[in-house]
Amino acid sequence: MGEIKKIDEVYQTLLKLEKRNRDGVSAQELSKELKADRANISRYLNELCRSNKLKKIKGRPVLYCSNKARKTEDTPAKIVSSFDDLVGARYSLARPIQQAKAAILYPPRGLHTLLLGETGVGKSMFAGLMHRFAIESKTIREDAPFIQFNCADYADNPQLVMAQIFGVKKGAYTGATQDREGLLKKADGGILFLDEVHRLSPQGQEMLFTYIDKGYFRPLGETEKRVTADVQIIAATTEDPESYLLGTFIRRIPMTITLPSLKDRGLEERYCLVYNFLKEESKRVGRSIYINRNSLISFLLYDCPNNIGQLSSDIQLACARAFLNYKTGNKKYLLISQADLPGHVKKGLMKLHKYREEIESLLQDKGDVLHFSPEDDRQEIRPEVKGTRFFYDIIEEKLNSLRQIDMDEDKINEILNIDIESHFQKHLENLPAVIRKEEIRKVVDEEVANTVDKILSLAAKKLKRSFDEKIYFGLALHLQKSIERISNGDKIYHPELNHIRASHADEFMVAMEAARIIDNKFGIETPLDEIGYLTMFLIKNPYKTRDKVQKKVAVFVIMHGNSTASSMVEVANKLIGTDHAIPLDMPLNMNPEEIFELALKEVNKLERSSSVILLVDMGSLTNFGEMLAEKTGREVKTIDMVSTPVVIDVCRKAVLGQDINEIYRSCRGNRYSPKLNVSQVKAVRSRQKNAIITTCFTGEGAAEKLKEVIEKELPAGSNCEVLPLNILNKEHYLAALKEYKEYYNIIAVVGTVEVEQEGLPFISAVELLSGEGLNYLKRVITELDVYSRIKESLKEHIKVLDSEKLVEDVRQGIINIEEALKLRVPAEVKVGIVLHMSFLIEKLKKGIKETEFPELKEFRDSYQKEMALIKKALVRIEKNYSITISENELAYLCKMFTRNQISGSTGGEGIEDDYAGLLGRDVDQPVSE
User: Fold this and answer.
1) Distance CA 693, CA 33 (A)
2) What is the DSSP letter of 863?
3) What is the pTM of this model?
4) Which of 152, 169, 259, 592 has its CA 20 to 30 A from that of 669?
């Protein structure tokens, strides 16, 4: 419901904004208006486009408008303007552009204009655009001149400056051997742009404002002849005009436009500028240019005092260095890495801790390597995967991005092994849980769907295993694309082919038979690598990696604080009996640059063959690994948010000689470990604390995002904690889950991938984000909070029994009854049932006579089955409290449940089936005995 309301709110806000912006509305404008995350706004806008409520207008930025507005728009044709393509035209430059257009269009011949701004903000370009707009608006003729002159060029000779602007009469000064026309006359009918006008002498300024007043001037040395010219003057200065220009001159310039500096234009506009400059460079060199993510971040964050001009120059320098490496190193790709950046640009990465959220938002759908081509507008090598985007493309692009930096094939295979597992799993897990085959045939060819039927029937028979519709849909989509690729002669690459073939021989043999079916049907020859992919659809768990080669690794611990790193290292080294780990403490008043230089100095002391693992806590330290690798040429890995046990574990494995990648993966996998403080332990020992587990491969990305979504939607004051976990290592994950269950009442596991949940109910990310999962979680948490309050309340009224245990047993009994009867009752009814059953049990324990049910026989005849199921569901309660619940009481309970059930609650599939689990049933115990 919340999603529906939000998308309606976005739509209504867009309708309101497009009354002001007839050209369309951007996601950023809506984000600011609604004070909402821009990524979510973009998602809603795309949904509205798919439902044909909106139209998308391509450009930078992308604009959206309602279909109704496009159909009914009856405004005069808008002047096509060169300003519209300017980066920031709708944001930081909106007002300057509005002023510039007004200055050009003002009758009869525009307004003289003064441009203000720091060096490099683009004043010259802006003046040129004003000239272009004047032509576009037909204010001046198409061949009208644009004359540009920098007053600083002859600043040491004021007379020469005036001669350039106004012209010279023969004999005006020594060397003036003939009459010469000035720039003012040359600009007749057009625009004269005077840059650095503050360098024009007072006499020159006076001559200029005389021309502005009277429309004529006299060349230097002329006393009689007047020269007329119809010229609009645009002047520019980096200085304060009040201090450097005559007041009489300033008063004659009616329009003053201030252009913002680069630091005032925001990261989104800076990104667009970097994008444009790299596109220009790719056109200049005539080939694609690639840039890695950290280099891009450096360009976005470094101090750039000379603004756009300096940014352009620094990008050109980086491109030139990368081009040199490309040519001299005979490399396949022109890649800009950190090593190619000027020193002052590299320092930009040091500021990431200050702008992390904004950078992550800006680059959230960008890959590790961005691609700029002279032919097309494709931007990134690994764009966001949506719909049926085929994961071959993802792997191939990742492969290219690694090969472009000349990495050897063994190393590429090692890295791609993890990526291919992740992409393959996402490819399946993002699919809906229940898929009708007729729906699949809408997105794949009939022949492909029929072929998948044959393949899975064959596999089920050979492997004695059933395959659900998720596999059916995933394989169908996969096959549709792979047949196209094979038919087109595109290469297919599987980095783990030998491992898959050796580890899953049975599935591989079936996949080979499947390939023969495909070949016969479509007239192609399925390559061996594709058979590796087909195998992955047939095996139960394709996510295993091979053992790695061992080698020595140095361990550095770098932490914020005066002695945090030293204390951790002291404990680790003492326990292991070595001095292997090296501490570097970073006091809070120390700059990141200082600690980096210190780390660099220490790393350089190592043997040249040593690889390094950095164990850090947070912030700018997390970026040191790549920077040290570039500076030293070593292999460096970084693990952040570490604790003392992690330091001990890493150090122990390094001393044992394990490979850096093995240490890195296993110890990042151990970041799941639940570290509870004293207050947490006290709070949860008595089962006071409920918890929801969110999961993903790292425990950081999707798990953290799901945590944010859930926490934002939790009922106010709810007694529930959301805990992210890493599932990359199944053994570690299950150990963590088991430990959490000791302290928390775990309501459910929410994640992108369903693995073994220790009997806990699982909610997929799709179910959560669609609203279904959130609704269930909110209801369950609300009910658990109600049960908690009932426990407290009954302490005053029930003296014979432990009220907390009693309510917990009754709650479990209600869950058992709902499961048995395949129905649900509203939360408010459950409160009454809990109280009724609690007092009933106490009454029976005291031996008080039961209450008779009116017309019991007739009721029993109608509800015999239901009463039997309720009796069975309450066996444990009868046994635990040594009581017998009679038919009279069973009839009362049956009436409460059957007469108050929620309409349509007759069981079902998916999350509905897990409802009992969502309320925390202990699955290790049977429902009845």
Assistant:
1) 34
2) S
3) 0.42
4) 592
Confidence at residue 451, expressed as pLDDT on a 0 to 100 scale:
92
Instruction: Please answer whether residues 170 and 176 qualify as being in contact, where contact means their C-beta atoms are separated by less than 8 angstroms.
Output: yes
Q: 758: phi > 0 → left, psi -120 to 50 → alpha, else beta; which?
A: left
pLDDT tens across 103-135, in order? 999 988 899 999 999 999 999 999 999 999 999
Placement of tokens 């009814």 in the chain: 829
Q: Rounded to an integer, what distance in angstroms lies between the CA atom of residue 191 and that of residue 685?
A: 80
What would the two tokens of residue 374 be? 């002279």
CB 746 within 8 A of CB 740: yes
Number of neighbours of residue 123 by Cβ within 10 angstroms? 24
Q: Tell me the one-letter amino acid at 232.
A: Q
Ramachandran sector of residue 231 (left: φ over 0; alpha: ψ -120 to 50; beta: rest): beta
Amino acid occupying residue 350? M
Other CB atoms within 10 Å distance of the CB of residue 188 = 16
CB 918 within 8 A of CB 776: yes
| CB contact set of 252 (below 8 Å; sequence gap of 6+) | 112, 209, 212, 213
**Cis before residue 108, ω within 30 degrees of 0?**
yes
Helix or strand run (H / E) with residue 307? helix 307-328
Cis amide linkage into residue 61, ω under 30° from 0: yes
Angle between helix axes 887-899 and 864-873 (nearest 10 degrees) is 100
677, with CB counted inside 10 A (0-12, 13-18, 19+), is exposed
Question: DSSP label at 78?
Answer: P
Name the more confident of 916 and 860.
860
Residue 472: other Cβ atoms inside 10 A:
20
Of the candidates 357, 731, 387, the residue with the CA atom closest to the CA atom of residue 543: 731
Residue 661: CB atoms within 10 A of its CB come to 20
C-beta of residue 103 within 8 angstroms of C-beta of residue 110: yes
CB 524 within 8 A of CB 488: no
Q: Where do the domains of the chain lie, and which CATH numbers do they carry? A: 2-74 (1.10.10.10), 82-260 (3.40.50.300), 266-390+398-408+419-424 (no CATH), 437-538 (1.10.1790.10), 554-658 (3.40.50.510), 681-784 (3.40.50), 798-919 (1.10.1790.10)
Which amino acid, one-letter code, is at 381? Answer: I
Partners of 180 in the beta sheet? 168
Give start and end residues of each alpha helix (H) in 76-144: 94-105, 123-136
Phi and psi, residue 690, nearest 5°: -95, 160
User: What whole-number distance in Å separates Cα of residue 125 and Cα of residue 401?
Assistant: 35
| CA separation for the pair 551, 533 (Å, rounded) | 32
448 SS3 class: helix
Is the pLDDT higher at 596 or at 381? 596
| 324-to-205, 334, 336 alpha-carbon distances in Å | 48, 9, 11
d(CA 651, CA 641): 16
Output the six-digit token pair for 295.
């280099």
- The two three-digit tokens of residue 165, written as one number: 């602007």
Residue whose structure tokens are 């049956």: 894
The SS3 of residue 922 is coil
Nearest to 131 by CA among 231, 199, 200, 273: 231
Chain position carrying tokens 């964050």: 301
- For 330-383, the pLDDT digits (tens) are 777 888 988 889 888 988 888 888 888 888 888 876 777 888 877 654 333 322
Query: Cα separation of 297 and 370, whole Å?
Result: 12
